[in-house]
Structure formats: C-alpha cells, structure tokens
Amino acid sequence: MNPKIELFHGPNKFADSAGAVVEFEPPFNETLSADSIDKQWKKLDSHQGRSLWTGNQPENELSFVDLYTEIVSYFRQPVAVCDHKCISGYQIGNNQRAWIFLCHTHSNTANLILRSSMALTNEIFSLIVTGHPGINKLVPNPIANLQRQVANLHYSKTANILLTVALSRGIPTYPISLGAISGSMDKAVLVDTTALQPMNLTR
Questions:
Q1: Residue 26: strand, helix, or coil
Q2: Average pLDDT of span 105-126
C-alpha cells in the first residue's frame, strides 16, 4: 500500500483544526456488504462484540476507501470537533491513489487512528476476500486496544474544554508541547511492529 501520512497544525489547507492526511493505494478493488464487514468487525472486537455501525448500517457495498473512512470515523476523538464531520475520503479511479483526511485536536492521535484503522481495514478485506489474515500481525483485541490508546492520548478535561471553546469561536489551535499528553506513542500501536519498518511521516 505504501501509505504516506502528513501531519498538519490548525488551521491548514484542509480544515480549521489540526489533523492528518494519509495517501495510499488501496490493495483491494472488491466491495463488501455491510453485513459481512460487521461480522468480521465483531470477531475482532472480541472484548465487546459491538457493531461498527454506530448509526444506520450502509445499504450499499463498501470499497476499501469507504470502509477505511468508516473505521476512522468510529475512532475519531469526539471532543472539540464534534460539531462538524471532519473526516473525508476519496479515490480517483481503480488502482489509483486515495486520500483520507482526519481533523483532530492533536495530530499524534490522528496519526495513530489513521495508521491503525488502515491495518483493521486491510485485515477485514483480507479475511473476507482471501479467507486469510492480512499482512499485518494485529495485537490481541485490536479494537479495544486502540480505543484505550486513543483515550490515553487525549488532552486533559480542562484542555479539552479550552479547545472546544476556541474552535467554537473560530480561534486557531495547535499543540506547542507534548506535556499535556498522557500515554506513550511507543505503546500506542495497533500493529505488531516487530517485523515492520517504521513509517515515514513526511512526504
């Protein structure tokens, strides 16, 4: 897939808040039904067994980009950007590059969500299309693990209140230090990286 992730402070050319853009070539051209996707999702979410579809289940089949966008939306931070959908995904033609942008109040968390959601999307497509796991070795209970790591990377309650007020008034925000973040990026990885090369986060 050779994904490339670029991080942005806010505001930027994509949105008013910080976020990240991932550019990649989808590894599958097939589309999948929402039912088949949800069955695999619940197996991966063995801790809770909850549905991916927090709202209405899609009626049409989903492409790799469609599912990737849905999974990113599932994990996105609900604070400060909750008043507008700040997730977009698009692709030009089959076997062409695709892009997904995710707004976030902290770029590190957006980066984590984009990387881990891609691993989950690839796993689901691989299991359904080929009958075999994907190329990435996922950690146990990957969905619960990612939810926990995202929660650990959130700002404090006070910082979240300030961010929400700032964004509601159109005041640009961006992190000036990592001191307000709890947790460690070394632990916040959904994929077992022992056999993988580090991802280049710049173009």
A1: coil
A2: 87
What is the pLDDT, as a whole number, of residue 67?
A: 95
Q: Is the pLDDT of residue 185 over 50?
A: no
Identify the pLDDT of residue 160.
Answer: 66
Residues 6+ apart with CB under 8 A from 21: 5, 6, 8, 14, 99, 100, 101, 102
Contact call for residues 67 and 125 (beta carbons, < 8 A): yes
Q: Where are the alpha helices (DSSP H) in 62-156?
A: 64-75, 107-129, 142-153
**Share of the chain residues as helix, strand and coil, in percent rounded to the nearest 5:** 35, 15, 50
CB distance 127 to 135 below 8 Å? no
Question: What number of other Cβ atoms are within 10 A of residue 102's Cβ?
Answer: 29
d(CA 138, CA 98): 23
What global pTM score does this model have?
A: 0.74
The Cα 68–Cα 51 span in angstroms is 15
Q: Which of 166, 153, 161 is nearest to 108 (CA)?
A: 153
DSSP line for 153-184: HSPPHHHHHHHHHHHHTT-----S-STT--S-
